# Entry
Amino acid sequence: MRVRRGQSGTAGALVRGAGARRGLAIATVTLAALLGATSTGLAVPPPPPNPSDSSIDSAKGDANAKAGEVGRLTNQLAQAEQKLSALQDNVELKQEQAMKALVDLQTAQDEATQAQNDAKSARQEADAAVGAIEKARADAKKFAAASFEQGSTIGSISAYLTSDSPKDLLARAQLLNSIGGSRLNAMDRLQQAQTEKANKDSAARKALELAQQKQDAATRAKGTADAAQSAAVSAQQAQAAQNTQLEANKNAVEQQLYAAQAKVNGLQGQRQRYQDWLAQKQREDEERARQAALRAAAANNDDGGDNGGGSRGRPSPAAGSSIEAVIARALSKVGMPYAWGGGNGSGPTRGIRDGGVADRYGDYRKIGFDCSGLMIYAFAGVQGLPHFSGYQYTSGRRVPLSQMRRGDMLFWGGSGGIHHVALYLGNGQMVEAPQSGSYVRVTSVRYGGIMPYATRLIG
# Structure
């Protein structure tokens, strides 16, 4: 374990006073002690609530259902608004039709009134003509009677007796004849006038009858238009009430959606706080593991170790069948590079190509271990293991995680299969080869995605 410059003033003084190897060991122990003394400052609070996946999924499902219902109601409301707009247009059309019917009715009423006045005038004119004719007829009768009594049809005999000469007599005869003819012509004209007035009276009556028919039709049209307008208004009002109810329902479900989303956010917030707590606890555990490694390195150096060269400079522990031998072999490789496909029962090997992530990290150029290769090396004295974590999961007796103990293998995976394995050290610690770009390390057990059973090869 290499100690960096400036890491401890006490270390420098001890190196100068007592020799390099002994001073380095004491400095390392001193640093570990100092870190151990301050480790209480790294202590994390008790874990916050960690909602279950089923609780979060249930809350999400409820929120999604509410969101779907809001979407459905929104579509219904949009359709209802469109229908309401069409009904409003229909109301306006019916209003215009009612207005037209009202105008037509007023026109028909005016025409009927005029027709009534015209008929009345025509009757009056016809009545007057009949009266004049009757008077002329009476006069003619009187004239005829007088002429008959006098022996002449053209006037009184005195008109002739009073003439002064034959010429005057002839003139008077012509005058009386003319007067008699005029009276007869006047009677003819009066008779013709009576006929014309009677025709006018008949036409006026027909016009009045037609005007009355138009007025009746306009009245019926007005009633129909008013009824249609009333129906349109009722339909529009009913749709408006339905829209109001839909809007209220949508608002209510939106409030439920907000509450469901808030619940999801709250649960996810709790999960995030729990994960933050786990990360903080992992950092604390890693720091404690680092301190333990420092103390172990200091002890090795004090016993004549490799002068800070790490696990590569020390001989590997002999393969053994005991739990401690297995753990010692795994811990001896802490700090070795991760190499995908690397590691066997004899130690680290060169990694292999995977055509992807491992190649990008250059694992095929590194000598080290992957997760299952580290287990092969650790358990070399117990049994040979296949270089695949999925087969290693079934290579021994499986025990529930609640019963796991030091020396058991822990696995991570899901429906797609196993993808990682580590060796449990006890007290919530494990040793693992994590992933490309990292190194074999001691860290806290991660419970996210962990398989429900540990695999036990010893005991």
Summary: Confidence is low (pLDDT under 50) at residues 1-42, 303-310. The beta strands are 349-350, 367-368, 397-400, 409-414, 417-426, 429-432, 441-444, 453-456. Residues 62-267 form a domain with the Helix Hairpins fold (CATH 1.10.287). The first strand starts at residue 349 and ends at 350.
